Automatic annotation (TrEMBL):
Coiled-coil region list: none
InterPro entries: MFS_dom (IPR020846), MFS_sugar_transport-like (IPR005828), MFS_Sugar_Transporters (IPR050360), MFS_trans_sf (IPR036259), Sugar/inositol_transpt (IPR003663), Sugar_transporter_CS (IPR005829)
Protein name: Major facilitator superfamily (MFS) profile domain-containing protein
Keywords assigned by UniProt, alphabetized: Membrane, Transmembrane, Transmembrane helix, Transport
Signal peptide: none
Family listed: Belongs to the major facilitator superfamily. Sugar transporter (TC 2.A.1.1) family.
Top-rank lineage group of the source organism: Eukaryota
Residues in Major facilitator superfamily (MFS) profile domain copies: 13-459
Transmembrane segments: 49-70, 82-103, 115-133, 145-163, 264-286, 298-319, 326-351, 371-394, 406-426, 432-455
Topology versus the membrane: Multi-pass membrane protein
């Protein structure tokens, strides 16, 4: 066997993998500060609400395709190599984007970039989940979300700084800078190991065990943690051999439909809460709150800072707090602030025929100063509620033999909802104004109920344990009692077997 890649620290590898999240964040806010600039409006002939929705949503449209294609590249080439392919595609799209000449070229370049983001958002979390231990997994998956928030904030400030250039560099410079993280990830990926679970699934057990040892035991293949993990993975792969099919239809069998459905709705509820739609068009929202000019951009930037800061608690506490309770608390709190924003806008705002000067999309304005401040505060508090509570869940709950397909399908629905909301939010602000917040708030309430009923607890459990919970427990998560994780007991058993001389390297690596 050839020499393994150089990186062996789980946190370093996960941190590099989450550069994909940084890229996604760059893409999310690559339009936010730019769409309000005079240079952008003039160069692209002042796109109306529908056209601007199409321009912004084109990235999500590409992500729909990328997320589905990534399931094939992941199964065929592995999680790591899928990320490599995605980086190449991102560089192509970004090159076209910073050289853009017209609206069609802008849409095409954003579709290409979106294709890359669809692959990155599918495969990055899978790789992180498959290399981490149970007590690390929640924190490391939250790191992906944290990097997305950093990407959103960094690109917003880059765009804000570029807005003072006074020429087409206002949009060309930010769109060129977004190539840098992809270049960094591209050079680091060859030094990162493949997923040990992917290697095991392809009957490359010697490599799988060595990767586990490098990641968790400084190269010691007889470490109890390595032995316990290897045994769990082997048992699960053996048990899954009876499910001969790995086709797309396998996702909808009786065994898998509940967990696939939960994975899909994790993304659907995250989108239908309104978080990303409101982030894309934060400039419009603060214009409705009565802000103008530079004040709009500065106030919008505060929301991105809050998003970064409030994701930190998830990094610290997520492996100690139940996932279900976090999801439910977050959804209910977000609902409160969405309805509060609707109430403030309805009570203190008025219709603006034809929209504000230079912004025909903004047809509602709050003129009461106190109500305006309260509206902005609710916007900040909404993000503060979302950031530490809603995170990655699908990579944890899907069995190995269909993981790439199921996570890709979940991500497909994520970007499908993102596309729809991104496209229809500007017309929504234009036509139903504050009522849009009522729709988002209602979705948040339904998300809380859905999570309470069906989302199983995953905190502190190995991927193989979680698989058993979905196989053997009631589908009604609200009825299941939490039991101690067996992974700790498996480690102790492996330690006893090693001390008794019952295991050696060949036994650990054998299939």
């Amino acid at each position: 066997m050839g020499k393994l890649p150089g990186f062996s620290d789980v946190y370093l590898i996960s941190g590099l993998t989450t550069i994909g999240g940084l890229i996604q964040g760059f893409d999310v806010s690559s339009m936010s500060a730019i769409i309000g600039t005079d240079q952008y409006k003039e160069y692209f002939n002042k796109p109306n609400a529908v056209l601007q929705g199409g321009i912004t949503a084109s990235m999500a449209g590409g992500s729909l395709l990328g997320s589905l294609v990534s399931s094939w590249t992941s199964d065929r080439f592995g999680r790591r190599d899928s990320l490599f392919i995605a980086c190449i595609i991102w560089l192509i799209g970004s090159t076209l984007m910073c050289a853009v000449q017209n609206v069609p070229m802008l849409i095409v370049s954003r579709v290409i970039n979106g294709f890359s983001v669809g692959m990155l958002t599918s495969q990055g979390p899978i790789l992180i989940a498959e290399i981490s231990l149970p007590h690390q997994r929640g924190r490391l998956l939250s790191l992906q979300q944290w990097m997305i928030t950093w990407g959103i904030m960094i690109m917003y400030f880059i765009s804000y700084g570029a807005s003072f250039m006074g020429n087409n560099g206002v949009f060309r410079l930010p769109w060129a800078i977004q190539m840098l993280p992809a270049i960094l990830l591209l050079f680091c990926l060859p030094m990162m190991p493949r997923s040990p679970r992917w290697l095991a699934a392809h009957d490359r057990w010697e490599e799988a065990v060595e990767v586990l040892a490098r990641l968790h035991a400084q190269g010691n293949t007889l470490d109890p943690i390595v032995v316990a993990q290897t045994n769990e993975i082997r048992e699960k792969i053996e048990s899954e051999k009876k499910y001969a099919s790995t086709s797309w239809m396998e996702l909808f069998t009786t065994r898998n439909i509940v967990r696939v459905h939960c994975g899909i709705f994790t993304h659907i509820w995250s989108q239908l809460s309104g978080t990303n739609a409101l982030m894309y068009y934060i400039v419009y929202i603060f214009q409705m709150a009565g802000l103008t000019g530079n004040n709009t951009l500065i106030s919008a930037s505060i929301q991105y800072i809050i998003n970064v800061v409030m994701t930190l608690p998830a990094l610290v506490f997520i492996d100690k707090l139940p996932r279900r309770q976090l999801f439910i608390f977050g959804a209910l709190t977000m609902a409160v602030f969405q309805f509060m924003q609707a109430g403030l806008m309805a009570s203190y705002g008025h219709y603006v025929p034809g929209g504000l000067p230079g912004s025909p999309t903004v047809t509602w304005k709050v003129t009461n100063p106190k109500a305006s401040k309260a509206l902005i505060a609710c916007s900040y508090l909404f993000i503060a509620a979302y950031a530490p509570t809603w995170g990655a869940y699908p990579p944890e709950i899907i069995p190995l033999y269909i993981r790439s397909k199921a996570v890709s399908l979940s991500t497909f629905f994520n970007w499908g909802c993102n596309f729809a909301l991104t496209f229809f939010t500007p017309p929504g602000f234009q036509n139903i104004q504050w009522k849009l917040y009522c729709i988002f708030g209602t979705f948040c309430l339904v998300a809380a109920l859905h999570t309470f009923l069906l989302f199983q607890e995953t905190c502190g459990r190995s991927l193989e344990e979680i698989d058993d919970i979905f196989d053997n427990k009631s589908i009604w998560a609200c009825k299941n009692k939490k039991e101690p994780s067996r992974f700790v007991a498996d480690i102790e058993q492996a330690r006893e077997d090693l001390d008794a001389g019952k295991l050696d390297v060949k036994q650990v690596e054998s299939t």
